[in-house]
DNA sequence: AGCCCTGCTGCGAAAATTCGCAACAAATAG
DNA sequence: CTATTTGTTGCGAATTTTCGCAGCAGGGCT
């Protein structure tokens, strides 16, 4: 999951924002830490190389990069937020409430639902990263026994 | 939005839980305050008649009543959680990111999506109260101008 | 070089949320 | 009836997240 630093930097600068060392460190951390990283794990990671970088900045930059659509945000099972690098195509998840297993879904699974909301309610749903909760095959089978 | 106290109380007791004054007060507060009430507004409300009832208890009881499916939980636009009395039928929302307007959807709008996840992934989605974010007719039109 | 303007950060305080634990109270057993 | 167990709460501390504000720093301008 490498990110093209120069392309993102240009995008930010073009919008009038600045590419600060803190933003680069935080973005690097999110990418290195992988999927669904929490603010606290980002803070722990960057704090090693930049001890003065504050928690507030971590939260602010994660929000900021999400607004700029460089990161996406997702609600975890416990209600907390996690972030990851926005890929070229959004994806979503099925999360089992029993075993916490996580299935990845392509964006296309929401196509017909989004179309229906658009035609029925004239409302354009804008989703980049959603988790749906429920129960997976295995847990349904073992529960039935 | 009145709730049948005796029926809920029986349900709780039958499961081995207790119906405490705190739980009754908090449930009453949620019902009186209407849709999408926040923990803080519940606390403010109950605190008037029960000054010793603590914030921790408010959070715990809201979680508890949600587990028992007496309340439902929903993520608001700002990421915070809100609660409301679980009706006989779940409902969902379309929330405009521009004007914050809120449209209510019947549970049935998710039927075909849930069926698709069940058949394609053998995963049973369990949703009681979801918000989808996007842009409403009016805001799309004024943005286009 | 200076001078603005504005974006951004660090800091500490505040607010929101969770946690551990001792005390309490309702149900239960004996 | 007392003893025990177990669910529940209040309290205070810890943790997480937000906020306000003063000051720094980059970029433009002269
Ligand atoms: Mn993901
Ligand atoms: Mn609702
Ligand atoms: Zn499972
Ligand atoms: Zn709107």
Describe the structure.
Two copies of one chain form a homodimer. By secondary structure, chain A is α+β, with helices and mostly antiparallel strands. Chain A folds into two domains: 1-88, Orthogonal Bundle (Arc Repressor Mutant, subunit A); 89-145, Ferric-uptake regulator, C-terminal dimerisarion domain (Dna Ligase, domain 1). The first copy, chain A, is built from six helices and six strands, in the order H-H-H-H-E-E-E-E-H-E-E-H. In chain A, strands 4-3-6 form a three-stranded mixed beta sheet. In chain A, a hairpin with a 5-residue loop joins strand 1 and strand 2 (81-85). The radius of gyration of chain A is 18 Å and the shape is globular. The N and C termini of chain A lie far apart (41 Å). The relative contact order of chain A is 0.12. The A-B interface holds A 75, 79, 81, 94, 96-97, 103, 105, 109-110, 112-113, 116-117, 120-127, 132-137, 140 and B 75, 79, 81, 94, 96-97, 103, 105, 109-110, 112-113, 116-117, 120-127, 132-137, 140. The complex binds manganese (II) ion (2 copies) and zinc ion (ZN) (2 copies). The site of one zinc ion has 8 residues of chain B, from helix 6. Chain B binds a DNA duplex (30 and 30 nucleotides) through residues 16-18, 20, 22-23, 39-40, 52-57, 59-61, 80.
Question: What's the topology here?
Answer:
Two copies of one chain form a homodimer.
Chain A: H1 5-14, H2 21-33, H3 39-49, H4 55-67, E1 71-75, E2 81-85, E3 91-96, E4 102-106, H5 111-121, E5 124-125, E6 131-135, H6 137-144
Parallel strand pairs in A: 3-6
Antiparallel strand pairs in A: 1-2, 3-4
Helix pairs in contact in A: 2-3, 2-4, 3-4
The structure holds manganese (II) ion (2 copies) and zinc ion (2 copies).
One manganese (II) ion binds at residues 35-36, 74, 84, 91, 93, 129 of chain A.
Chain B binds a DNA duplex (30 and 30 nucleotides) through residues 16-18, 20, 22-23, 39-40, 52-57, 59-61, 80.
